[in-house]
C-alpha cells in the first residue's frame, strides 16, 4: 500500500491562496479578540512553503476507496509563513481599563486616550508536532482532529520587535489564538468544507432531493465524492499542516463510486416494504432490525405540532412480548442526524424533509457525531478488523470528554453486511452511546402527538395514512415481537440507569399498543447503531413507497386514520433530558 | 441623568462642603456631559427613597437581554436635607449639562469642625457607606467615603465579582483640596496601579482674605484658568500614562456669554484634545470637541448641544379693572420681587461625530416620574440606523 502525498500541487492552484486567506480571515475574526486588537485581522500573505510536513502513519483503521480512517503523527518545520495585518491599541492604560468595572476605574482624564497603530505580524518558522486522527468518507466528509496541541513553536515578528514588552505580549497572545484556532476552529472548518465539496447533495434543495427519491441508485450516483477537486478541502483548513494527507486520500479513491449498502439488504428491505404495502403477511427476516415507521424524528413532531424535535428526548422502544429488554434511543436533535441543519435549514420545517435524505443523512449524521466526540468509527469494518475496533475504541475513550455520561459509549463497529454471521457474544459487541445514535424516530415517539393531531389531520392525511406501517402491521402481525432474542446484559445495565422509565415500561409493555410494531429479527441485536441504520433504511423505503403512491394514486390519501386517534399510553410521553 | 444614589452622593458632597468639581478628573466635565452622555439601553426602572436623612435605598430593574436589576443601600452619618422626591427635585441638579464653575470658596478651618461637650470632642467625621448588588450577575459594589478633614477626603471603591481576576478590585483615592489647588493620589489593586492627579487654579487664592474687588470690565473675560496633570503607573504590568490639561472657564460674574475651553495633552500617545463649550443662551449650550493624534494622524470631531425646554409661564390675562377704567388709567402692575422659577419640561441633548453617529437624549419629568429616553443612531448603516433605544424611569420619594 502506498500513499501519495502531494504538497506542491497545492501551491499550483492560483485560487488556492486567495481562498485560504479568506477562510483564515474569517476564522481569525470569529473568536473574541483581546482588547489590544482594535480592528479586524486581515491575512495579508500566506505561503505554504516548499517543505512538506513529515507524516508517519501510526494506524490505519479503515481503508477503502471511499473512506479512510487513520492516525498520523505529523511533524512540520517548514518554511511556510503567514503575514497578518491589524491595528492595535498602543496605550496600555486604555487596554487596562477596557474590561475593568467602571466603578473602581481611576477614570483618567486623557491618559487613557487611544493610539491605534497598524501592525503587521509575520508568523514564520512554524513548528508543529501532533497526532492527527483523520476520518474520511465520501458521505460524511472529512473529520480531522488533533489529539494534542499541535503548535510547538513559532516565531512572531512584528512592527514592535524593538520593544521587548510588546513583542513578548504579542508572541503570547498570538500563540494562544493559534492554539484555539487549530484545536477548535480548524476541524470545524475542514469538516464544513469537505461536506460542501464531497457531498453535493447536502447543498441541494430539499425538494430536489425529494424528486430524486424514487431511485435509490440515483442518490448514490449523485454522491460523486471526488468530482470536485480535492485541493479545495485542503485549503479549506487554511492550514499548512495536513494538506498532503487529504489530497492524497482523495486522490486515492477518486476513481470509483461504490455502493453504500449491500444489495442483499436493499433487496430485503424492498421485500419488506412491498409486503407492508400490500398487507401481505410475508416478512423477510432481517436480523437485528426494528421496523420503524418514520425515518426522521421531525416528521411526526411537525405534524402534531406539539413535540419539539430539537430538544433531546429519550425514546424507548421495547419488545412487546415475552421479553424485558428495552432499547433506549437518545434523540438529541442538535447532535445527530440533523445537527447539520444550518446547511439545510428547510429540513426541519417540512414534514417529509427527511425522505430524500434517508440514506445520506443517516450516514452523515454519524459523521457529525464522530467528529464531535473525536471518535473513529467504521460501519463497514472488514471481517478482520475486530482488534482494530477495540483499539480505536480505547483511543476514543481516552479522548472522551470528562463530562460525558457514565454510560458506556461505544459505537458498535459492525460490518453492515454481516447480517448472516452468527450472533456473537453480546458483551463485547454491543456498545452504546448516549447522545449519538439517531434512530430516527421510534414508533413510540411517533405516536405521542396523536392527541394533538386531529387539528392538523386534514393536511396530513395522505402521508400519515401511508406511512403508518404500524397500522398495517397490526392487522397482519399482531403478535410480532420487536426483539425476539434474549436480552443483552448491556441493555439491562443501561435500563437500570433509568429506573423510572423502566418501571413505566414494565407496567405498560403488555399493552396492545406496543404490539403493532413489526419485528424483523430473530437473532441477537448486535448494536444500536446498526439497528438504527437498518431502521433508517426501512423508513426510507417506506418513504419512497409512500411518495410513489402519492404520485400514482389517491386511494391511500383517503385511508381512514381512526386507529391512530387513540392517545398514547402515558408512559411514552417524551422524556426531555 | 444622575442616578438617585449619585444624586445623594452629590448631596453629601454639598452637605460636607466638598468641592467636587475642583479636581483634575473633572476638568472636562462640561464636554463629557454634553458629548459623552450615556444613552440608556432597553427599559429600566428605578425606585428609590431617602427614607430618613441618613438612609437611602434604591432598586433598579432593567431588561437588557434578560431581566436584571440591582439593590443598593446608602448610609451617611451626615443628615442630608435634600429634596429627594422625584416630583420636586430640581432637574438642574439631576441632569448634567453645561457645568458652570463657581467661585472658589474658602475652606473651613479644621477647628470649625470641632465640637466640644464636657471637655471632650464629640464631633465625628462625615462618612458615607454605599453598597450595590447586581443581580443576577452577583456583582457587588461598595463605596466608603470619609471626610478626614475639611481639606481631605478618602474614597474607597470596591467591586467584588467572581469573573474579575482575583475576585475583585479595590480603588483607594485620597483627595486633598485647599481650593487653590487640588491633589489626589490613588491606588488600584488591579495591576497595582498608582496614580497622582493635581489641579492648580490660577488667580486669587481663596485662602487669603482679599478686600479689594477684582477689576471688573464688561468687555473682558472674567474667568479662571486652571491647569493640571495626571500620572499613572501600573506597578505590576509596567505600564503607565501621563496627561496634562488646562481649562479656561468664565465665572458666574462674567457678563458675556459663559464659555469653557479645555485643552488636554497626552505626550506619550501624542494625543491632543480640545473642547469648547458655550452657553449660547439661557437654555442652550453648544459644545465641540476635536481630537488629534500627532503620531497616527487620526482625528475625531464631535459636536453636541443641549436644549432646555421650559414650561411657558402662562401669564394670566389681566382685564382692566372697572375702577381703572373709570379713572382713565391702566392698572398698576405689581412686579414680583423674585420671578417664579421656570418649570423645566425637559432637556434635549444631541451629539454627532464625524462618522455620522448620532446620540439623542430626552430627559424630563412626567408627573412624578423622571424619565430618560435615548437612542443612538448610526447614519452610515442605512438598513438599521437605530442601534440602541432605551427608556429609563426613576421614581424616588
Automatic annotation (TrEMBL), chain A:
Lacks alpha-helical transmembrane segments, suggesting that it resides in the membrane via beta-sheet conformations similar to those predicted for other outer membrane proteins and porin. One of its GO terms (biological process) is mitochondrion organization. GO terms for molecular function: lipid binding. Keywords: Lipid transport, Lipid-binding, Membrane, Mitochondrion, Mitochondrion outer membrane, Transmembrane, Transmembrane beta strand, Transport. Belongs to the MDM34 family. It is found in: Membrane; Mitochondrion outer membrane. Component of the ER-mitochondria encounter structure (ERMES) or MDM complex, composed of MMM1, MDM10, MDM12 and MDM34. InterPro entries: MDM34, MDM34_N, SMP_LBD. Residues 568-577 have a biased composition (Pro residues). The keyword Chaperone does not apply. Residues 1-195 form the SMP-LTD domain. Its main location: membrane. Residues 363-382 have a biased composition (Basic residues). GO terms for cellular component: ERMES complex. It comes from Venustampulla echinocandica. Component of the ERMES/MDM complex, which serves as a molecular tether to connect the endoplasmic reticulum (ER) and mitochondria. Components of this complex are involved in the control of mitochondrial shape and protein biogenesis, and function in nonvesicular lipid trafficking between the ER and mitochondria. MDM34 is required for the interaction of the ER-resident membrane protein MMM1 and the outer mitochondrial membrane-resident beta-barrel protein MDM10. HAMAP family: Mdm34. It comes from the Eukaryota. It is a multi-pass membrane protein. The gene is MDM34. Residues 330-431, 469-491, 543-577 are annotated as: Disordered. This is Mitochondrial distribution and morphology protein 34. Residues 346-355, 469-479 have a biased composition (Polar residues).
TrEMBL record, chain B:
Keywords: Membrane, Mitochondrion, Mitochondrion outer membrane, Transmembrane, Transmembrane beta strand. One of its GO terms (biological process) is protein insertion into mitochondrial outer membrane. One of its GO terms (cellular component) is SAM complex. It is found in: Mitochondrion outer membrane. Its main location: mitochondrion. It is a multi-pass membrane protein. Component of the ERMES/MDM complex, which serves as a molecular tether to connect the endoplasmic reticulum and mitochondria. Components of this complex are involved in the control of mitochondrial shape and protein biogenesis and may function in phospholipid exchange. MDM10 is involved in the late assembly steps of the general translocase of the mitochondrial outer membrane (TOM complex). Functions in the TOM40-specific route of the assembly of outer membrane beta-barrel proteins, including the association of TOM40 with the receptor TOM22 and small TOM proteins. Component of the ER-mitochondria encounter structure (ERMES) or MDM complex, composed of MMM1, MDM10, MDM12 and MDM34. Associates with the mitochondrial outer membrane sorting assembly machinery SAM(core) complex. Belongs to the MDM10 family. This is Mitochondrial distribution and morphology protein 10. The gene is MDM10.
Amino acid at each position: 500500500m502506498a500513499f501519495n502525498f502531494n504538497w506542491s500541487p497545492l501551491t499550483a492552484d492560483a485560487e488556492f491562496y486567495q481562498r485560504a486567506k479568506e477562510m483564515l480571515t474569517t476564522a481569525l475574526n470569529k473568536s473574541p479578540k483581546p482588547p489590544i486588537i482594535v480592528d479586524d485581522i486581515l491575512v495579508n500573505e500566506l505561503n505554504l512553503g516548499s517543505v512538506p510536513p513529515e507524516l508517519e502513519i501510526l494506524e490505519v483503521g479503515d481503508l477503502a476507496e471511499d473512506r479512510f480512517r487513520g492516525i498520523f503523527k505529523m511533524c512540520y518545520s517548514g518554511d511556510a509563513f503567514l503575514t497578518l495585518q491589524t491595528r492595535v491599541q498602543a496605550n496600555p492604560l486604555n487596554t487596562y481599563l477596557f474590561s475593568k468595572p467602571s466603578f473602581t476605574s481611576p477614570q483618567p482624564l486623557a491618559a487613557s486616550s487611544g493610539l491605534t497603530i497598524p501592525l503587521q505580524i509575520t508568523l514564520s518558522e512554524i513548528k508543529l508536532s501532533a497526532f492527527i486522527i483523520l476520518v474520511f468518507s465520501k458521505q460524511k466528509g472529512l473529520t480531522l482532529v488533533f489529539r494534542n496541541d499541535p503548535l510547538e513553536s513559532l516565531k512572531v515578528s512584528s512592527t514592535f520587535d524593538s520593544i521587548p514588552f510588546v513583542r513578548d505580549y504579542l508572541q503570547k497572545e498570538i500563540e494562544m489564538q493559534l492554539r484555539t484556532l487549530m484545536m477548535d476552529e480548524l476541524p470545524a472548518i475542514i469538516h464544513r468544507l469537505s461536506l460542501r465539496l464531497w457531498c453535493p447533495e447536502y447543498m441541494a434543495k430539499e425538494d430536489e432531493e425529494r424528486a430524486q427519491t424514487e431511485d435509490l441508485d440515483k442518490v448514490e450516483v449523485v454522491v460523486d465524492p471526488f468530482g470536485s477537486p480535492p485541493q479545495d478541502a485542503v485549503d479549506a483548513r487554511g492550514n499548512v499542516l495536513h494538506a498532503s494527507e487529504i489530497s492524497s486520500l482523495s486522490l486515492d479513491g477518486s476513481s470509483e463510486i461504490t455502493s453504500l449498502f449491500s444489495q442483499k439488504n436493499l433487496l430485503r428491505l424492498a421485500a419488506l416494504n412491498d409486503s407492508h404495502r400490500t398487507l401481505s403477511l410475508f416478512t423477510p427476516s432481517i436480523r437485528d432490525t426494528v421496523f420503524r415507521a418514520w425515518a426522521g424524528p421531525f416528521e411526526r413532531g411537525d405534524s402534531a405540532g406539539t413535540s419539539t424535535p430539537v430538544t433531546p428526548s429519550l425514546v424507548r422502544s421495547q419488545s412487546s412480548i415475552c421479553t424485558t429488554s428495552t432499547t433506549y434511543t437518545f434523540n438529541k436533535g442538535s447532535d445527530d442526524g440533523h445537527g447539520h441543519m444550518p446547511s439545510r435549514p428547510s429540513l426541519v420545517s417540512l414534514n417529509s424533509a427527511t425522505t430524500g435524505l434517508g440514506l445520506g443523512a443517516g450516514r452523515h449524521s454519524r459523521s457529525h457525531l464522530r467528529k464531535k466526540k473525536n471518535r473513529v468509527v467504521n460501519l463497514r469494518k472488514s471481517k478482520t478488523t475486530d482488534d482494530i475496533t477495540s483499539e480505536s475504541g480505547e483511543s476514543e475513550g481516552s479522548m472522551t470528554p470528562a463530562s460525558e455520561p457514565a454510560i458506556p459509549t461505544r459505537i458498535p463497529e459492525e460490518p453492515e453486511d454481516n447480517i448472516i454471521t452468527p450472533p456473537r457474544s453480546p458483551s463485547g459487541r454491543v456498545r452504546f452511546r448516549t447522545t449519538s445514535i439517531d434512530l430516527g424516530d421510534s414508533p413510540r415517539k411517533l405516536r405521542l402527538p396523536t392527541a394533538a393531531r386531529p387539528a392538523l389531520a386534514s393536511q396530513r392525511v395522505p402521508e400519515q395514512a401511508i406511512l403508518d406501517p404500524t397500522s398495517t402491521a397490526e392487522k397482519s402481525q399482531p403478535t410480532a415481537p420487536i426483539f425476539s432474542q434474549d436480552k443483552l446484559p448491556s441493555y439491562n445495565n443501561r435500563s437500570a440507569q433509568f429506573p423510572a422509565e423502566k418501571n413505566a415500561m414494565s407496567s405498560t409493555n403488555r399493552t396492545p399498543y406496543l404490539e403493532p410494531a413489526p419485528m424483523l429479527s430473530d437473532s441477537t441485536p448486535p448494536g444500536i447503531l446498526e439497528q438504527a441504520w437498518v431502521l433508517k433504511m426501512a423508513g426510507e423505503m417506506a418513504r419512497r413507497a409512500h411518495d410513489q403512491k402519492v404520485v400514482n394514486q389517491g386511494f391511500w390519501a383517503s385511508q381512514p386514520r381512526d386507529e391512530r386517534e387513540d392517545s398514547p399510553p402515558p408512559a411514552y410521553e417524551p422524556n426531555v433530558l | 441623568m444622575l442616578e438617585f444614589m449619585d444624586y445623594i452622593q452629590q448631596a453629601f458632597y454639598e452637605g460636607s462642603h466638598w468641592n467636587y468639581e475642583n479636581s483634575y478628573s473633572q476638568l472636562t466635565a462640561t464636554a463629557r456631559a454634553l458629548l459623552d452622555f450615556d444613552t440608556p439601553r432597553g427599559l429600566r426602572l428605578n425606585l428609590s427613597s431617602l427614607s430618613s436623612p441618613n438612609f437611602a435605598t434604591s432598586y433598579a430593574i432593567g431588561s437588557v437581554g434578560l431581566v436584571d436589576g440591582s439593590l443598593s443601600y446608602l448610609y451617611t452619618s451626615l443628615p442630608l436635607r435634600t429634596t429627594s422626591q422625584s416630583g420636586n427635585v430640581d432637574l438642574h441638579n439631576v441632569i448634567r449639562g453645561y457645568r458652570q464653575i463657581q467661585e472658589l470658596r474658602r475652606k473651613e478651618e479644621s477647628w470649625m469642625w470641632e465640637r466640644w461637650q464636657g471637655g471632650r470632642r464629640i464631633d465625628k467625621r462625615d462618612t458615607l457607606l454605599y453598597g450595590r448588588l447586581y443581580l443576577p450577575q452577583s456583582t457587588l459594589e461598595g463605596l466608603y467615603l470619609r471626610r478626614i478633614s475639611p481639606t481631605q477626603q478618602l474614597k474607597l471603591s470596591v467591586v467584588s465579582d467572581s469573573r474579575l481576576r482575583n475576585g475583585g478590585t479595590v480603588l483607594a483615592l485620597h483627595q486633598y483640596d485647599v481650593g487653590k489647588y487640588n491633589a489626589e493620589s490613588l491606588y488600584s489593586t488591579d495591576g497595582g496601579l498608582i496614580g497622582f492627579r493635581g489641579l492648580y487654579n490660577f488667580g486669587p487664592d481663596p485662602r487669603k482674605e482679599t478686600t479689594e474687588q477684582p477689576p471688573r470690565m464688561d468687555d473682558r473675560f472674567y474667568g479662571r484658568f486652571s491647569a493640571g496633570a495626571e500620572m499613572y503607573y501600573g506597578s505590576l504590568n509596567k505600564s503607565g500614562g501621563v496627561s496634562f490639561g488646562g481649562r479656561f472657564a468664565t465665572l458666574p460674574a462674567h457678563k458675556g456669554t459663559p464659555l469653557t475651553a479645555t485643552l488636554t495633552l497626552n505626550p506619550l500617545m501624542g494625543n491632543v484634545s480640545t473642547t469648547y463649550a458655550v452657553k449660547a443662551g439661557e437654555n442652550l449650550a453648544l459644545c465641540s470637541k476635536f481630537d488629534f493624534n500627532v503620531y497616527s494622524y487620526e482625528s475625531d470631531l464631535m459636536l453636541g448641544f443641549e436644549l432646555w425646554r421650559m414650561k411657558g409661564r402662562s401669564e394670566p390675562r389681566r382685564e382692566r379693572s372697572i375702577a381703572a377704567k373709570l379713572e382713565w388709567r391702566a392698572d398698576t402692575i405689581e412686579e414680583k420681587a423674585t420671578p417664579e422659577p421656570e418649570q423645566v419640561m425637559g432637556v434635549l441633548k444631541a451629539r454627532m461625530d464625524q462618522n455620522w453617529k448620532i446620540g439623542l437624549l430626552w430627559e424630563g419629568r412626567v408627573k412624578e416620574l423622571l424619565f430618560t429616553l435615548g437612542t443612538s443612531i448610526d447614519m452610515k448603516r442605512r438598513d438599521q440606523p437605530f442601534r440602541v433605544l432605551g427608556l429609563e424611569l426613576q421614581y424616588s420619594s
